[in-house]
Amino acid sequence: MLICWACSQVETLAKKGYDRDEGNKEGCHLGKIKILIADDHAVVREGTRQILEQEPDLNVVAEAGDGEEAVRLAGNFKPDVAIIDIAMPGVDGIEATKQIKALYPSVAVLILTAYDDDQFVFSLLEAGAAGYLLKSIRGRELIDAVRAVYAGESVLHPSIARKVLNRFVPAPGKLARQGPAEVLSEREMDVLKAAARGLSNQDIADKLCLSVRTVQAHLGHIFNKLEVSSRTEAVVRALKEGWVTLDDVR
């Protein structure tokens, strides 16, 4: 089971379902989700392609065997989602993610790897990866994760989510360095806390009596104010500042 952002109550994306009109891209229902796969093992790329292309809304447009090729193909094919491994020859997955997010910020990067080392996890989340999955996941979970990051959500493997919470939740009694009211509006904090609980854009809209488009606008404002590019980064920042507590993500 995957955690959509990092809530301690695990909710599978399959249970939550997926509304393609909810995505953060105009007219996403008119075409397929374009995917780039980057892994130095051809058999992994082939297997991943076969899993994804069983779905009518997913289309693998390019494959890369190393990070340098992944960055080049991202520019050539403009994928919606890039599935990237960490250990690749030459330019590794961390550097490839940094370059792709710098050059093509609209591409949602989904890490799919066998490594869960802290240095990799936090380097990639800081680089702007929207999701971090381990290769032990099942095919259905990968499919759901691709749809989730395309819709602007963040997906973490449970063990990765625990690392994030353990690292960034402030010690009891520690005061926030800066009050949230000094940075975000009250409504933006409501949206951020709902995102921290793993709610989808539609769920947040229903909870706060807003339209999905308004929720997307609030998330965009939050990202800009916090200078981040994903839900994961936004929630990590809120945890570090003490604006969000463990009770908020349960």
- Counted up, domains total 2
Task: Report the CATH topology name of the largest domain.
Answer: Rossmann fold
SSE order, as H and E? Answer: EHEHEHEHEHEHEHHHHH
How large a portion of the residues is in β-strands, by DSSP E?
5-15%
Strand order of the largest sheet: 1-7-6-5-4-2-3
Shape summary: globular
Q: What's the count of strands?
A: 7
Helix content: 40-55%
Contiguous uncertain segments of 5+ residues:
5-30
CATH superfamily of the largest domain: Response regulator
Given helix and strand content, the structural type is: alpha/beta
Describe the largest sheet.
7 strands, mixed
Indicate the radius of gyration in whole angstroms. Answer: 17 Å
Overall pLDDT level: 81
Q: How do the helices and strands line up, and which of them pair or pack?
A:
Elements: E1 3-4, H1 13-16, E2 33-38, H2 42-52, E3 58-64, H3 67-77, E4 81-84, H4 93-103, E5 108-113, H5 118-127, E6 131-134, H6 139-150, E7 155-156, H7 158-168, H8 186-196, H9 201-208, H10 212-226, H11 231-241
Parallel strand pairs: 2-3, 2-4, 4-5, 5-6, 6-7
Antiparallel strand pairs: 1-7
Helix pairs in contact: 3-4, 4-5, 8-10, 8-11, 9-10
